[in-house]
Amino acid sequence: MKKIEAIIKPFKLDEVKEALQGVGLQGMTVVEAKGFGRQKGHTELYRGAEYVVDFLPKLKLELVVADEQVEAALEAIQTAAKTGKIGDGKIFVSTIEQAIRIRTGETGDTAL
Amino acid sequence: MKKIEAIIKPFKLDEVKEALQGVGLQGMTVVEAKGFGRQKGHTELYRGAEYVVDFLPKLKLELVVADEQVEAALEAIQTAAKTGKIGDGKIFVSTIEQAIRIRTGETGDTAL
Amino acid sequence: MKKIEAIIKPFKLDEVKEALQGVGLQGMTVVEAKGFGRQKGHTELYRGAEYVVDFLPKLKLELVVADEQVEAALEAIQTAAKTGKIGDGKIFVSTIEQAIRIRTGETGDTAL
Ligand SMILES: Nc1ncnc2c1ncn2[C@@H]1O[C@H](COP(=O)(O)OP(=O)(O)OP(=O)(O)O)[C@@H](O)[C@H]1O
Ligand SMILES: Nc1ncnc2c1ncn2[C@@H]1O[C@H](COP(=O)(O)OP(=O)(O)OP(=O)(O)O)[C@@H](O)[C@H]1O
Ligand SMILES: Nc1ncnc2c1ncn2[C@@H]1O[C@H](COP(=O)(O)OP(=O)(O)OP(=O)(O)O)[C@@H](O)[C@H]1O
Ligand SMILES: [Mg+2]
Ligand SMILES: [Mg+2]
Ligand SMILES: [Mg+2]
């Protein structure tokens, strides 16, 4: 299993969620975050205004998926989260060794 | 060392914390999250009312523990977080390669 | 690539951010967290007052860096986040297998 973490622009959440559901992925945890980007003092558009950025509001999505679903998930997130403007965000992938569904005690892929 | 991430119902925090303390684990970081579950449009109970869920408030607990404590921690969380109703949450386990306690510079298990 | 997670005292964010920029690291995601420490009922200073701690407000910093930058990042965080008083926080390191910069599709170290 892999954990996919995606830091996206907040207004993109619905599109990303729908893209993920389109490839059969519903389980997801979302956390509000402050993002500090690569260019110190670069500008980003936020609600129509340009900001010289110290930090910007971002959402961090976390989803754990079976190995076979990683590519579809990455593709879905990338396509849906992209505006082509700076600040579109990042995706990080790491390994999850164990997953447990608390209600049933199921483990592994069937717990996702 | 392992990182245990548990997404739980918020009202279960105290019980889970006490269960973890019962097996000797006090260090923990908790983040507020929005949870999107497996069933699109399923209902969950939240504060006594039934919701057709888009998302639900959840807490994400993160605790890094020594390898020997993983099983006890998982058992404690699972037992304490369980209501038997849908939405009880998930637990994910991954590897942590290095830990540092900032005040002392200690590393590894003794830093936890 | 490695993910560095640092749980720090909130008022230390600016110092830590500047220390990281000093070693060439600007990309970072910050999440507000509640911290539960090692000693049940120990006291910490928060805004000048002593608290018997159940939990304390912390910030969790997450930054993904190239392998060659891990040591410099850890050193920067540790030095900048340290007050010498209890509650200075922890740093955890784990492996990231894939990184994608959404706007450009770049992957790996060049995506960071
Ligand atoms: N190395 C990193 N580690 C952790 N989070 C990061 C890292 N780099 C960026 N982020 C997070 O991703 C968000 C968006 O980054 P951003 O898309 O601006 O990256 P970028 O490399 O500057 O790309 P762009 O040129 O398209 O703006 C940041 O605000 C931050 O939250
Ligand atoms: N694959 C996943 N990746 C990341 N987070 C997830 C995943 N699946 C669920 N979650 C998180 O866990 C929370 C609780 O999930 P939930 O317990 O409803 O899972 P479930 O499989 O639908 O089980 P149940 O049938 O008992 O409801 C979700 O709201 C979400 O925050
Ligand atoms: N094992 C752990 N797993 C996850 N988070 C932890 C763990 N231990 C501590 N933390 C987080 O780090 C924060 C700061 O911990 P703290 O610095 O108080 O650790 P400590 O071992 O008690 O060190 P000190 O004696 O200097 O206070 C906690 O409030 C919590 O958010
Ligand atoms: Mg940027
Ligand atoms: Mg559910
Ligand atoms: Mg402490």
Describe this structure as you would to a colleague.
- The structure is a homotrimer of 112-residue chains.
- The first copy, chain A, is built from 2 helices and 7 strands; from the N terminus they run βαββββαββ.
- Chain A has a single domain, classed as Alpha-Beta Plaits.
- The first copy, chain A, is α+β, with helices and mostly antiparallel strands and 112 residues long.
- The first copy, chain A, starts with a strand and ends in an 11-residue tail after the last strand.
- Chain A is elongated and about 50 Å long.
- In chain A, the strands form 2 sheets. Chain A has a 4-stranded antiparallel β-sheet, covered by helices on one side.
- Chains in contact: A-B, A-C, B-C.
- At the A-C interface, strand 1, strand 2, helix 2 and strand 6 of A face strand 2 and strand 7 of C.
- One adenosine-5'-triphosphate sits at the interface of chains B and A.
Helicity level of chain A, as a percent range? 10-25%
Strand content range of chain A? 35-45%
CATH A-level architecture of chain A: 2-Layer Sandwich
Order of strands in the sheet with most strands of chain A? 2-5-1-6
Measured on Cα atoms, how large is the radius of gyration of chain A?
Answer: 15 Å
Keywords (chains A, B, C): Nitrogen fixation, Nucleotide-binding, Phosphoprotein, Transcription, Transcription regulation
Modified residues (O-UMP-tyrosine) (chains A, B, C): 51
Family (chains A, B, C): Belongs to the P(II) protein family.
Organism (chains A, B, C): Litorimonas cladophorae
